[in-house]
From TrEMBL:
GO molecular function, a single term: FMN binding
Coiled-coil regions listed in the entry: none
EC number: 1.7.1.17
Reactions accelerated catalytically: N,N-dimethyl-1,4-phenylenediamine + anthranilate + 2 NAD(+) = 2-(4-dimethylaminophenyl)diazenylbenzoate + 2 NADH + 2 H(+)
Entry annotated with the keyword Repressor: no
Enzymatic class: oxidoreductase
Highest taxon listed in the record's lineage: Eukaryota
Keywords assigned by UniProt, alphabetized: Flavoprotein, FMN, NAD, Oxidoreductase
Annotated protein name in UniProt: FMN-dependent NADH-azoreductase
């Protein structure tokens, strides 16, 4: 007689063989496909890259006729999204003439590679509670009207394709309340029409047994990465409670105000116009204020562009002691430290944040990745921010009126950023529907609201 545990193991093995045979048979029946893997961590040793490597090796063995393509968005080759690209997107919304600029053509090339893939794998490590800025930049290119979604029905055009989303974090649990990146990725994938979204979530160090287990899980999922008929990721558009201001925030005399704007559209940006009008009132009514404006929208390209957060930046942030990378890391850290110095040297903050593809603009996320640094803006031991007692005003705008809905990922992103560095209390002002005829009226209402929040007449 066999021991009970042996019978159990034999049963497990037979079940595993049955599934392996079933999916091997399915892979033979499928015509040749193209798998696209999107890499967003610059570190070869990252957990997401290791899991992705295990998946691809197993997939190549199981689907020998398929082609595997890679796009590494972390290497700095992605073109910026300038005002030309934004205008082209607005023209597409309104059915205007197609843009023929070289900048727009680069976006279309990225979209074509994305759309031509039959299956996708997205490696998305957690960076500052969210996703890397360069992955956000990639999706800011990909989400385009008539290309990947129907602007008339808000229906995604990428239906029927399986996606594997790999998320990893060292400390903040994936899927917890402090993880705003996973809801965003699921939201944007659902918006694009993906319904078959499979996941591997990882929380822990990169040298644990858990990593080995997850790599084995990835190998198993690779053998089963075939098409399904069932939809598993519905997109719900429901109204949620908007963020309330945390009391009246009176700006004191001689305050240092640090304002961050993040749109490349200059005076055409409604969020910029609101904060500009508000700050003019502040300078007129509050004695001796010192104003510093950081226009991230003007730092998307050119000599003054905001540098991507590279592998050397990550090494510096994590405190790697490898002599071969430490010098480069220290040089990169100097750049971040200058951004941090200007950020910390303020008493009051004002943020103008337009919604870009359900979240914040990639350029704002890139800046956040630079300024959120251990022992500079947050305490890694106590897990709390170091900029406590400093109030902020946050103006958010959405042309389609999505703020406060289940598709609003801007609000939780900004809320978690403020909590991460300790900024608060925070007063929020929403501009919903700014692409309509009431744009000028909404700007005036928002400016008046900010004045009330600041206790101004």
């Amino acid at each position: 007689l066999k021991p009970a545990w042996l019978n159990h193991r034999v049963a497990e093995s037979l079940e595993s063989l049955r599934f392996d045979f079933m999916f091997a048979f399915a892979s033979v029946r499928e015509p040749p496909r193209t798998l696209l893997m999107v890499v967003s961590s610059p570190l070869q040793s990252s957990v997401t890259n290791k899991i992705g490597k295990s998946f691809c090796e197993a997939y190549a063995g199981a689907f020998t006729r398929d082609k595997i393509k890679y796009i590494d968005v972390s290497d700095g080759h992605l073109p910026p999204i300038t005002s030309t690209c934004v205008r082209a997107k607005f023209m597409a919304y309104s059915g205007g003439d197609k843009c023929s600029s070289e900048e727009w053509q680069k976006t279309l090339n990225l979209i074509e590679t994305f759309k031509s893939a039959d299956k996708l794998v997205i490696l998305a490590p957690m960076w500052n509670t969210n996703i890397p800025a360069e992955l956000k930049l990639y999706f800011d290119h990909i989400v385009q009207p008539h290309q990947t979604f129907n602007p008339d029905t808000a229906e995604g055009l990428m239906k029927g394709k399986p996606v594997l989303l790999v998320r990893a974090s060292r400390d903040i649990p994936i899927g917890s309340a402090n993880d705003s990146g996973t809801p965003y990725m699921l939201g944007i994938l659902g918006f694009l029409g993906f319904t078959d979204v499979r996941r591997i979530d990882y929380t822990g160090s990169s040298s644990s047994q858990l990593l080995r287990d997850k790599c084995v899980e990835a190998e198993r999922m690779a053998h089963q990465f075939v098409f399904k008929d069932s939809a598993t990721l519905p997109v719900l558009l429901s109204r949620l409670p908007t963020l309330e201001m945390d009391g009246r925030l009176k700006i004191k005399r001689h305050s240092k105000i640090f304002c961050v704007t993040s749109s490349p559209m200059a005076s055409r940006s409604t969020s910029k116009r609101v904060v500009s009008d508000f700050l003019q009132e502040v300078e007129d009514q509050v004695e001796g204020v010192e104003l510093t404006v950081l226009d991230l929208g003007g730092m998307m390209s050119g000599d003054n562009h905001l540098r991507p957060f590279t592998a050397a930046d990550v090494n510096a942030k994590l405190g790697f002691a490898d002599p071969q990378v430490q010098h480069s890391a220290n040089e990169e850290l100097k750049y971040s430290m200058e951004l941090i110095r200007k950020f910390r040297d303020a008493d009051v903050y004002v943020f103008a944040v337009p919604m870009w593809n359900l979240g914040i603009p990639y350029i704002l996320k890139r800046w956040i990745d630079h300024v959120v640094q251990p022992n500079e803006t947050f305490d890694p031991i106590l897990q709390r921010g170091l900029l406590t007692g400093r109030p902020a005003f946050c103006v958010a705008s959405s042309g389609n009126g999505l703020l406060g809905t289940s598709l609003d990922h801007l609000s939780p992103m900004m809320k978690q950023f403020f909590q991460l560095v300790g900024i608060g209390p925070v007063a929020y002002t929403y501009l919903n529907g700014t692409s309509g005829e009431r744009a000028a009226e909404l700007v005036s209402e928002a400016t008046r609201n900010m004045k009330r929040q600041a206790g101004m007449s």
